[in-house]
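Workshop exercise sheet. Pairs work together: one partner reads the sequence aloud, the other fills in the structure field after running the prediction. Swap roles for the next sheet.
Pair: D.N. / O.F.
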Amino acid sequence: MKKVLMLATTAAMIEQFNKSNILILEEMGYTVDVAGNFDEGNPISQEKLNLFKTWLEEHGAGWYNLPATRKPTDLKNNRRALKMVISLIKENHYEFIHCHTPLGSVIGRFAAHKTKTPIIYTAHGFHFFKGAPIKNWLIYYPIEWFCSFMTDLLITINKEDFKRANRHLHAKDVKYIPGVGVDIPRFQNCVINKEAYIREFNFPEDAFVLLSVGELMERKNQIVIIEALHKLNNPNIYYLAVGQGHLQKLYESKICEYHLENQIKLLGFRDDVDRLCKYANCFVHPSIREGLGIAPLEAMASGMPLISANINGMKDYTAQNKTGFCIHPTEVDEMANAIDYIYKHPEFAKACGTHNQKVVKKYDIAHSKSVMRDIYATFIKTHEGK
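Structure field:
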């Protein structure tokens, strides 16, 4: 039985973005084991993680709970994770490893180097990019530069990373894929019960609703939306934030301080994002860093106008006054002005939504799967028998 190890710091990274890759490898005759932290650091519910474990078992895959963390300074647990991965490789004789997340990739590549196992690393957005904080360049760039010498194949998901990897890093091969893909029919064709949402959120029937999807954390930067709504002081504009995270209490405090409890709802985990996209009027994604951004692409597939940060990965598909507005992620005035304009100009919003449904076609999940299938086939052919 040919086996592959799929590795990430958090198990959620595999559950959210790699189930299709597991199925592709399964079709190619491989069993895929998954290694990641199932207990901590996951931006999805424990219930969803338990369902993922069941899904893996149904597909004949093993799952291993790594003590890895997202913190580069947590040397103790990440060393333990490295030792565990090395033991797994020796025990299961994997044909190759496919690793994800910055620290997961470091662990995976050191383990692969130690055991002479071929390795693929998908970089879901380098932490170092044009405009990134200097500390990101000082910490992450040297690590990635060093580890690139131990990388057989580096896959990037945005064009800036692809160019930088080719010019400055040393992986044996570098490929570009258009992200993990968007299930366009799901977001284009879903039907909603608007009255049910009106009752659930207690919003007026004619409410103008903003929507964001992402972990409540500094990188996703939802605070700028809250501050913008406070600045606008418009009781007709409402905001739904899907996701959980360590900033939830801070956001709740700010919402109360600004007396916005009736206008802003922190929804936690939801499995109806496609329907929420049809209910809301505008999608807002002010991330400080984004490898590509699956949530805004899904919103574009549903026909929503987009207010997005003018940063690395999202630059691949956003354009000022075409997809909506591209703003500096920390500028509250820019965010407030963008929201206000889309609220007051429904024809502009409609034109952006129509444009977005055309742009997103190149990110269709069927295309992404086809590209990934070809990459796996070439990689396997190159390394078989070695």
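Discussion prompt: Residues 365-383 form the longest helix (19 residues). What would you look at next?
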